[in-house]
Amino acid sequence: MSTPIPVESPVYSIEMVARITRLAPDRIVFFQRSGLVRPVVTDPELRFDDAAVLRLRRLAFFVAEYQVNDAGLRHLVALLDEVERLRAEVRFLRG
Q1: d(CA 15, CA 46)
Q2: Which CATH architecture has domain 12-94?
Q3: Closest CA to 3 of 33, 51, 47, 36
Q4: Are 18 and 31 in contact, with CB atoms under 8 Å apart?
């Protein structure tokens, strides 16, 4: 099922994301299937937005710099997501 995309939001094919992130396309698909990154479009092919590309670049950094394995990446992503959620809550509460 396809998700509508706002006209002003750039989206990237998996080939373009692979070039930007220096990750192999099959590794990107693995991250997508593992729930570590979400494409904005899945039909007929995967398309990623800027936020997904940034997340993939972070994942690639943690693997390259710290040799974090897939299980470690899942935990790391969960912690980073929680930090971002808490930051948003603090911004909201500060008004």
Answers
A1: 10
A2: Orthogonal Bundle (1.10)
A3: 47
A4: no
Other Cβ atoms within 10 Å of 33 Cβ, number: 9
In terms of Cα–Cα distance, which of 75, 51, 82 is closest to 90? 82
Place of tokens 């706002």: 6
Report the predicted TM-score, pTM, of the whole model to 2 decimal places: 0.83
Domain ranges of the chain: 12-94
Cα–Cα distance for residue pair 15/49, rounded to 1 Å: 13
39-92: per-residue pLDDT in tens? 998 889 999 999 999 999 999 999 999 999 999 999 999 999 999 999 999 999
Q: Which two tokens stand for residue 93?
A: 């509460």
